[in-house]
Amino acid sequence: xxxxxxxxxxxxxxxxxxxxxxxxxxxxxxxxxxxxxxxxxxxxxxxxxxxxxxxxxxxxxxxxxxxxxxxxxxxxxxxxxxxxxxxxxxxxxxxxxxxxxxxxxxxxxxxxxxxxxxxxxx
Length: 122
Fold this sequence. Notes:
Blueprint: E1 3-6, E2 9-12, E3 17-23, E4 31-37, E5 44-50, E6 56-58, E7 66-71, E8 76-81, E9 90-97, E10 109-112, E11 116-121
Parallel strand pairs: 2-11
Antiparallel strand pairs: 1-3, 3-8, 4-5, 4-9, 5-6, 7-8, 9-10, 9-11
């Protein structure tokens, strides 16, 4: 599967952004989600969704502010990010995990998108 992520940008703290990730196929039976990597830090899990059924999971740092969703017809997942903070600044990557768990794990990801930069200014 090929994943195409887009939607990043430069915003002020408190603003909102929506990231999108379009998949070329192969989403049914997988978990999809988002990771992020800030400068000098490891790539970390942000949010995940099981394509069939829609179960979701979030990192504690984004719970209540970010929402992951999917559009079956468009084969696309979204990450709605509200109340953005400077510490949310990172490159965001969409991913497909071969396990049926909404908590994506880097070691189980079999496809990565190219990354989209989110910069939150204070």
